Structures are given as structure tokens and as C-alpha cells.
Amino acid sequence: MERIDHLEHLDKHLVDELAQVARETIREELREQTRKQRRRAALYAASGALALYAGAALALAVGLALGIGLPDWAAALITAAILGVLAYVLRGAARPHPRPADHGHPAHHGAHHGGADAAQPPPVVPPAGAATGLGAPYPPMPSAPPDEAPRPGGIDPEAPHHRA
Q1: Quick one: which H or E segment has residue 150?
Q2: Are 149 and 115 in contact (CB under 8 A)?
Q3: DSSP state of 157
Q4: Which one of 1, 19, 34, 49 is separated from 75 by 20 to 30 angstroms, measured CA to CA?
């Protein structure tokens, strides 16, 4: 019996030692990965700041070039419109484009149903939880309140509850 207790103690010691080695190894790997990612993030931030200044300089150059033949206010307005259109196009390019949910089922094709909308594809609805840029995704609001159906057993959930 004494020998089994001694072996259990050795097993516990070995497991503790292996766990400690595994923790130290994982900790060192995570530190190295974090160091690399921190450097990469700093480079991306510097790149973004320089791109912002380059964009401002380009907008200034466009405005000054337009200001040669136009009044200053018109040149500024045209430059702002160009920047707004570019921002809109880039925002659209950054959004994920959902794939059509065709899956080869002929019942989903509008041409098989006939009618005025037969040539129109069905509207694309983003999946639940998808980032739409409109804030938190919520389910659609029902058009009417739910019908008040009688509860089984005549139990009214709004009635006060009393214990006998």
C-alpha cells in the first residue's frame, strides 16, 4: 500500500511539472507573437497616418487646380463632392457582398413563378448577425401584435400568484 501512495505522489509531481513546462512554453510563444503583432500594428498606424496626410495634400492640390478657373468656393465644393463620392465608393467596396442563395433549386428562380416581377431577382437579405453598418442587428418588427389566444387550463400569466 505504501508503494502505491509513493507512485501517486510521483505521478502528481510529474503532472505538475509537465503543466508548468507547458505553461512556460505557451507564455513564451504568446509573448513572441504579441511582439510581432505590436510592431505590425504600429507600422499600419503610421501608414494610415501618412495616407491621411497624402489624401489631404491631394485634396488641396485638386482644390487649388480647380481654383485657377473657378471661384474658390466652387473649387472647394467640387473637391468636397469628389471626396464624398470616393468615400461612398470605398465604403461600398469594403462591405461584404453576400453570395446569391441559388443552390441549384429551380423553385427559387423568379422566372418560374411568372408575373410582373418574374425577371427581378429576389432581394438579398444579410444573414442574422451580419454587420450592416446600421448598428446592432435586430429582427424585423412584426406588422401586427400577436393574437390573444386563451391559455390552456385557464391560467392567466398576468394574474397574481397565490400559494395555498
Answers
A1: none
A2: no
A3: T
A4: 49
Write down the residue that cell numbers 492640390 correspond to: 61
The Cα 122–Cα 125 span in angstroms is 9
Q: Which long-range contacts (CB under 8 A, 24 or more apart) does 92-95 make?
A: 95/133
pTM: 0.38
Query: Between 99 and 126, whose confidence is greater?
Result: 99
User: For residue 83, what is its C-alpha cell?
Assistant: 471626396
Calpha distance 130→136 (Å, rounded): 9
CA nearest 59: which of 45, 78, 74, 42? 78
How does 3-42 read in b/e, with b if 16+ C-beta sit within 10 Å?
Answer: eeeeeeeeeeeeeeeeeeeeeeeeeeeeeeeeeeeeeeee
Would you say 87 and 94 are in contact if contact means Cβ atoms under 8 Å apart? no
The per-residue pLDDT for range 26-43, each reduced to its tens digit, is 999 999 889 888 888 888
Q: How far apart are CA 45 and CA 39, in angstroms?
A: 10
- Say how far apart CA 7 and CA 138 lie, in whole Å: 59
pLDDT tens-digit map of 33-91 = 898 888 888 888 888 889 889 989 998 998 999 889 899 888 889 988 998 888 888 88
